[in-house]
Amino acid sequence: MANDKQAAQMRSGAGFVAALDQSGGSTPKALKLYGVDDDAWSTDEEMFGLIHEMRARIIKSPAFTGEKVIGAILFERTMDGEIDGVPTAQYLWEERGVVPFLKVDKGLADEKDGVQLMKPMPELDALLNKAVSKGIFGTKMRSVINAASPSGIRAVVAQQFEVGRQILAHGLVPIIEPEVNIKAADKQEAETLLRQEIAAQLEALPGDAEVMLKLTLPEQANHYADLIAHPRVMRVVALSGGYSREEANRRLAQNKGMIASFSRALTEGLSASQADDAFDRALAGTIASIHEASVAG
Fold first, then answer.
1. Closest CA to 262 of 195, 215, 212, 192
2. How far apart are alpha carbons 92 and 99 in whole angstroms?
3. 86-87 and 82-83 as β-strands: parallel, antiparallel, unpaired?
4. Looking at 68, 103, 140, 214, which residue is catalytic?
5. 39, 138, 139, 187: which has the fewest C-beta neighbours closer than 10 Å?
6. pTM for this entry
7. How far is residue 287's CA from residue 284's CA, in Å, rounded to a whole number?
8. Is 68 a catalytic residue?
9. Could you confirm whether 214 is annotated as catalytic?
10. Which of 177, 179, 191, 210 is catalytic?
11. How does DSSP classify residue 120?
12. 55-84 pLDDT per residue, tens
């Protein structure tokens, strides 16, 4: 069954996860970095059409295969779209050997107690049913920690795992993402609190449930080693969090068993105006460098 193969690839595949999931708020920024200014569209539909073209170009590029890119996280509209007439998730797995994930959160609530929880997701069950029907393997959802607040971090992790259990009930693997802001003054203390809270929640998971974790690259190398080794953790992936690709790769290579799940660092250096061969060369170089840092540990 494809899911067993996909689970094996996510557990032990030598590669990284591409994050192609910028949503409404971050799409204009992603397009601008790609060389498409906001005067290139006049409606949201046109804007999302342009970002879908960019993602399809990345996915179809020769270097974007399961050999180095073991998974990819999609935005809902990307999942709903097609590549060469084939639904995106199906194309990713069948044509590229890349396991498809879906971003399911609806953005962040305002900061309170040093953290930003996820906004409510009343439509989540319907979205998860659709994801299953589209051949999605797992999901991703993001919260943000801006300070080493014990109660705030506890609330973030509790919410992540509560929603994670809802996702597990649909047969999907949740990527739990409590991002620690790289600009946090007490980042290292926040990471210590975060590790404790995640460890406690893992112990409370039902049955033989497995989750993935997506964590900010830590101040102290191998800080998350115990979580990486935990039997309930399928894989730990790292977000670039605003670090340059060079800095993100440097930090990643110091963390044994952690692999990349970069978005902005993945598309750095790509441009809409590049000819296909130049685009493919640039992306192949990026994929090679992120892959190397992911397997270095």
1. 215
2. 7
3. antiparallel
4. 214
5. 39
6. 0.95
7. 5
8. no
9. yes
10. 177
11. P
12. 999 999 999 999 999 999 999 999 999 999
